Amino acid sequence: MATPDPDTFSTEISDADQHYYESVDAFTRHLDPAYRRTIRWADVDGRKKLLIGDRLFKMIPNPTFDPIARPGTLAEYFQGKNHAGADAATLIGELEPIRPEYQNRDRRVATLDEQGISTVLLLPTLALGVEELLHDDPPALHAAFRAFNSWVDEDWGFNRDGRIVAPAVMTLVDPVEAEKDLAWVIEHGARAIAFRPAPVVGPSGSRSPADAAHDRFWAMAAEAGLLVAYHAADSGYAYQAANWGERTHFTGYKESPFTEILSLNIERPVFDTMAALVAHGLFDRHPTLRVATVELGSGWVRELLRRMAISYGKSPQAFQRDPVEAFREHVWVAPFQEDHLDELVGLIGADHVLFGSDWPHPEGVAEPRSFLSLLDGMAPDTVRRIMSDNLKGLLSVA
What we know:
alpha/beta
């Protein structure tokens, strides 16, 4: 079968992974004054930096996003084609002033029209690193996310017209407060919620997201028909590198061969998180929940399903049902452009594969529709599902 032509493909596409760049007041505009020291801007060596609690936010070198890298400039780097060994800054090249469509909803809708995109899951950038710096202070963390979600709804809308679905960013660190936060975002029209792939870490220790302490939360999410999106973030896995003698922090661009080989910031956290959701019975207790993994690739899926199958074969009595089938029923996966899409379709079925461009991030696709060229040889119905229908179905968008 011929490769779909991005210029002639007639179906409007649905993108499960686009991003905004947060305005400088995204966390502070609606922040409870009692927590004004939770998130602050400071001048550090002549540059505007963000303080989370009393710690410097290091995940993003320039948290004002102005200037910013052009979309797609690191695509070949993440495809493993950096044969000259250039560093990320060299590959990114000259930065540009921030574009209006990165921070303005009307301009973004116009850009979606130009890209031929009907529906987009629009996700944060900076907010993905906040929980790791605040999980030891649950009241402050919940206050920060409440303020942020108010900003998301005000500037972007959780779901105003089906074009932009902006997930509310959630934490489970305090189960009671998490339920209050979820009730608020549901009341304000949320169609999706977003988490980092990680255990629930708090002052008294860690637990699984599928712990029974969170059952009321998941029941509320299931009843509301929300899509649960796990997105690449600072998952707190730097400690694993530290256990092997490395002192690193999550920056988004890999510099350590060890952390890159182990994929401590991408494949390892989502592998562990999906294993926990299935093994700890989340989908058995909440059979209508739907989970999407976004900007986490698909390289981990084959090994996870292999391990699940072996575990089930050894101890079927430990599971309420086949864990591989539970995964295939409840989880949707957005692969990276460098992944083997035909293999993923064979593992979980075309109905559970999502297209995500990661636009406008430098590691994403420069032109979202160019992703069609990666679907060479697939049947038109399969292409339509991946590029359009699957996400719309998850979001209940006509």
